[in-house]
Amino acid sequence: MLAEALGQQLVVPKSECLQPFAPGGEDADVADVSFVAQCNFEKAEGKNSARVVSCNTTGLCRVLYALDTNFGVKLARVVIVRRATDPDEPEKGIIDAVSIDPKIPSHHGPDVNTVLPNFKVISAALKIPTTHMHVHTLIVTLRDATVTKDKVIDVLNGTTRVITVSKEEGFKTTGQVFDYAREMGRWRSDLYEAAIWKDSVNIIDGELYFYMGVGQEAIVVPENVDAIRALSGGYTRDESIRMTNKTLNILK
User: Fold this and answer.
1) Domain residue extents for the chain
2) Active-site positions?
3) Contact in structure between 63 and 146 (CB atoms under 8 Å)
4) Rounded Cα–Cα distance for residues 206 and 147 (Å)
5) pLDDT, tens only, 192-228
6) Residue 153: CB partners within 8 Å, gap ≥ 6?
7) Would 12-53+220-252 and 56-218 be classified into the same CATH topology?
């Protein structure tokens, strides 16, 4: 599937130097640039290596970049409820407990700043006994004081690799979002998109609030494909994203 997503015309020169990194908590200095396709594709062009950031950082970057581009982000605060382990590693999971990471900020906020350095992100994280998806609670201070929740939803609906879901549509749990990917015929129920509950979007006293689900197994797959194209050259950001989205059946 990776080869198909890359397309037949891709030629990778200097293969020993072109190294997209699988995400997993590595330090930012392992590569020339931290990468999220729609945020900084151009910064990877001509580089020898790129670090595709983690699943949580990827989801945050996609959404915060869209908000910053349209409304200006002054500050983002994020509480991340993390899955305890991946489905194929149940022995690593926690049982009947919530595991607290007492360090605030967690590594996620500073990691977002390796891609989006122009505003501050403060994050906290904990783990719960589940294997499918992380859930983020975002509280975002926007520079545009005239923003309404309808405007925010419109922007999110127009953002590539982001979808909106709602309780009214039957999405009451992360499991139902996971099943949605299966019903679309996705291989392994892969959800490449960040999923935002549009009925959670609200603005209270000038602060934007919403919930977001992140499928940890799949969200970075399109980023790895685009990272290879960015390093190899010959494609614009929009061309690469469009090709990858079409091949992986990404909704938009």
Assistant:
1) 12-53+220-252, 56-218
2) 55
3) no
4) 9
5) 999 999 999 999 999 999 999 999 989 999 999 999 9
6) 164, 198, 201
7) no
Look at domain 56-218 and name its CATH class.
alpha beta
The fold adopted by the segment(s) 12-53+220-252 is: Rossmann fold (3.40.50)
CA neighbours closer than 13 Å in the CB half-sphere of residue 252 = 11
Helix axes 237-248, 221-232, angle to 10 degrees: 140
Torsion of CA 113, 77, 224, 15, to 10 degrees: 20
What is the value of pTM for the model shown? 0.88
Give CA–CA dist 40/13, Å, rounded: 21
> Among residues 166, 177, 245, which one has the least CA distance to residue 215?
177
Q: Is the peptide bond before 129 cis (omega within 30 degrees of 0)?
A: no
CA distance 8 to 214: 30
